[in-house]
């Protein structure tokens, strides 16, 4: 199967940065870009007075003449950023981010991500699909993707996670997408993946954490169900929220009906969060996130 | 000021009923209506297999000839309903339900309800506005409504609630609307008002119960805030949910911004729940509700 | 690949009926069901005073003892229905409705429908996928479905439609799903498929009919885009609307971005409409529809 | 009645600017602010390649020491902006923008705006309420606002508009809010108010332009109704859209029901658009708008 990358825009770059709040943080970025002859097409900045952190995201076109030297750009900007203790990243939207997708038995999110992947809507290079069950192997194989069936039990958890980590490291994956992977990651694993593992929880957090959230929702008699995409952290279902989605439900929906209805919301919410992350629109801000929506 | 009741429909009646699940519950209602020559314009029934309860709501037009005798109708139907242990209620949509509204300082929900009331969109007769603060008196007075300022403290709570109860009883109120009334009702009060007191909580329950839910939401970094209208019961913010509403928020919204943005959702959600209740579209079903939406 | 039908409920049946408005239409159905010892689990009826048409949908469980004889049921009910000129249909939710899906090049709706199909969420037997382009053959073939590539031009239209019709007839298809099939059906074809062909138009009708609705939307500068699922009729994009969905967009979205963002809404809206149709929740009511939502 | 302005933030300023696209437009703004010692709390910029226009909005805090001289700031920035043909505006969010509200008979939008006004949520100084009907005088008077009843007919239109214009001019109104004002403004009036008159149309434009959109929607059988807030221009209901809102409806909703349900959406949509405008988040971009949401 041919994977096509749809280049929606002409070549451009994304520069993101963050640092402690102080005077001059926007100017550091914009003045440098001006000097470099870079044309800013879109920019958003936010200064969080409660956390005293500054965040900025800039999309720009490099100068028309000559070849854009990303390395030189980064080296030069590093000098400007240093006095501000400003961390930054230069990204090309056309670059395919290496990812690993983790699943269990539910296939809807994987199916949705793979669809977007094969039609070029997700700028990723899927290095592997990892699962504690064998069920989703056919779907991965039809896409020509390696599938790792890594069963897990209380006794084998450490070894299984070590194997998962090996796959992540060896593949150079920069993002792990937990697409309804139903196992709880250990503290060590969560720490290793801090800021680069996105999970979809099938409820509107902080409501209905843990297992069987749709059944909890049914018992509670809520009139809305939803899903939350968040970065993994040490606490179960507590990581910084990226995006959430909702769907109205009625008294006539059984718990199984809620499960079925929730699938669409989970797919869309996870895909949105992953896309925002890949577009470098999401910044960790303590226990929260800053999201520069288009 | 003239309060006009907008009679949207020609004269018709609403018959609601519920009972334990068993064969023949729908037929009990429809056969009787047919015999009475009543014309059914809309009907919804639901049999809950988990709670083994049956619910039905029927809108009908009485026979064209003669005068409809509601009392005779009820007496005759009672005989049919008895073998099914079927509780029922016959209501006229044009009847103005006596209500008492309870508020504290926040005025948005009261303002919204009074607007709907004075333009005839809410078929209520507002008997009194009760508050533990004096702030909203002008708004009530402009509508020509009695305003009872009943301050409350830990020591005076029992007396204050006794006074509230006296007002409710004396006025014949059939519904108490807690429109951002910020005091927690005692168990006794909650029990007395079971099934006929609707509260608006400014969060998507079960998330963020208790005080300052918007501040809790801000700390948590959610990307959606909302409101929940529910019947009061003994547990704080735990009563059967009638309806919920949501609003997206961003990292740029401070806690005060969330408070401001949430007002619209609270108004709409409470108004919807009250309207559904007045239209007899809501049935208590254990800790949940059955809602026959239009 | 194994296609599994998820039997969410115990065995039950769906009886739908419609006729000219008159007294006794609900009773005709419920009395008969009572006599037959059928247990009504859910029922909705609506009497449209503007079109003078009555609609009813009932879900019921057959008597526990004995085998349910659908044919006998229908014959007996036909006698009751006749004096009311009542058309009715008895359906089993477990029955797989034969369908034909028509596509062109865009694959998102087909991908979505086939996912729901293979996971047993859509009670259909897909007889064929028909397209005027060859692009989507691999997707159909992976699902083991016959794919008919039927190119079309102004000159060959009549023949192509004749071939489409042959496929529909021979397969016994009861529903044709136009999943972003971009050709306009002729009047004859539309008439033949009246009430049993659902199309997804990628705009909020009546806005932006015809070609390139996202480009029209971009030019107009709307802040919401959407999709409309409707039955095909003789007028382009004018058929009775079943359901609609929306998505907010911004100034930063180019026309291509709108196309991309609209895909999710199109998939969900079409799937919802098809599901409602299969559940017999949708009734044609002149140029409109009656939809008995769960 | 006391009108309180809720000062949510510490003192800060808003600088907006726009000009033809070219290199260096962001830097012009940010470098100047840096030199002035101004602290940027939030900034958004967008370069529209299709219209070749650049837009930027910056919120900043002035230097802590000394008094901020807005006039000097503007004079100095004008010199920097001139070579870019950059139009700009410096605004204080605490400043109350003088407005005139125009209404006819429907009072829901006026009621909603006046509530927000009297509770300090809308930073406006309402100079007058103008109507072609007398009905809404009591509401305006309770708020202590001048009410001008200016009847209109085909013959008196020019004179009536002249009087409206006089009120707008004399009051120094910078924004005219057409809150369900049902008369069509003449070309001359539209031109005079270009970019500073916001209208709420009770449909999702471009669908259902003109009169009785809810009745049109009912006839069409749509499953969503909505409202569109837009700037007035010469074409009826064609002005640049600021924001839109939707509400689901069903077959059971009559045209009058749609009217009733639409009120909430109209109020919220209009209030949102007015708020965005007052926050200087909206820019005219040809027939469209750029909206920098929070």
Blueprint (SSEs and pairs):
Four copies of one chain form a homotetramer.
Chain A: E1 13-20, H1 25-35, E2 39-48, E3 53-61, H2 70-81, E4 87-91, E5 97-103, H3 108-118, E6 124-131, H4 137-142, E7 147-149, H5 157-171, E8 175-178, H6 187-192, E9 197-201, H7 213-220, E10 224-231, E11 241-248, H8 255-278, E12 282-285, E13 288-291
Parallel strand pairs in A: 5-6, 5-8, 6-7, 8-9
Antiparallel strand pairs in A: 1-3, 1-4, 2-3, 9-10, 10-11, 12-13
Walk me through this protein's architecture.
Four copies of one chain form a homotetramer. The first copy, chain A, has 294 residues and is of the alpha/beta class. Chain A has two domains: 13-91, Alpha-Beta Plaits (2-Layer Sandwich), CATH 3.30.70.260; 97-291, Formyl transferase, N-terminal domain (Rossmann fold, 3-Layer(aba) Sandwich). Helix content of chain A is 32%, strand content 28%. Chain A contains eight helices and 13 strands. In chain A, the strands form three sheets. The first copy, chain A, has a seven-stranded mixed β-sheet with strand order 7-6-5-8-9-10-11, sandwiched between helices. Chain A is globular, with a radius of gyration of 20 Å. The first copy, chain A, starts with 12 loop residues before the first strand and ends with a strand. The A-C interface holds A 1, 8, 42, 107-108, 111, 115, 119, 121, 138, 142, 250, 252-254, 256-257, 260, 264, 268, 271, 293-294 and C 1, 8, 42, 107-108, 111, 115, 119, 121, 138, 142, 250, 252-254, 256-257, 260, 264, 268, 271, 293-294. Strand 2 (39-48) of chain B pairs antiparallel with strand 2 of chain C, so a sheet runs across the interface.
């Amino acid at each position: 199967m041919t994977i096509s990358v749809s280049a929606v825009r002409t070549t451009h770059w994304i520069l993101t940065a963050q640092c402690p709040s102080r005077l001059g943080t926007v100017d550091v970025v914009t003045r440098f870009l001006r000097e470099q002859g870079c044309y800013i097409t879109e920019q958003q900045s936010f200064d969080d007075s409660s956390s005293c952190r500054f965040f900025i995201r800039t999309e720009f076109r490099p100068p028309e003449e000559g070849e854009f030297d990303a390395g030189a750009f980064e080296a030069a900007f590093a000098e400007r950023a240093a006095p501000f203790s400003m961390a930054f990243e230069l990204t090309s939207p056309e670059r395919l981010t290496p990812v690993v997708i983790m699943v269990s038995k539910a296939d809807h999110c994987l199916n949705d991500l793979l669809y977007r992947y094969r039609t070029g809507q997700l700028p990723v290079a899927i290095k592997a699909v990892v699962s504690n069950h064998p069920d989703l192997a056919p779907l991965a194989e039809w896409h020509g993707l390696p599938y790792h069936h890594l069963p897990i039990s209380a006794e084998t958890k450490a070894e299984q996670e070590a194997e998962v980590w090996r796959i992540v490291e060896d593949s150079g994956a920069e993002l792990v997408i937990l697409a309804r992977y139903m196992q709880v990651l250990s503290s060590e694993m969560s720490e290793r993946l801090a800021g680069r593992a996105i999970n979809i929880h099938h409820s509107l957090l902080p409501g209905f954490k843990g297992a069987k959230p749709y059944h909890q929702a049914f018992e509670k008699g809520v009139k809305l169900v939803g899903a939350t995409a968040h970065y993994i952290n040490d606490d179960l279902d507590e990581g910084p929220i990226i995006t959430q989605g909702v769907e109205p439900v009625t008294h006539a929906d059984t718990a199984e009906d809620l499960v079925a209805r929730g699938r669409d919301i989970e797919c869309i919410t996870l895909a949105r969060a992953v896309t925002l992350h890949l577009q470098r629109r999401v910044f960790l801000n303590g226990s929260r996130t800053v999201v520069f929506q288009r």
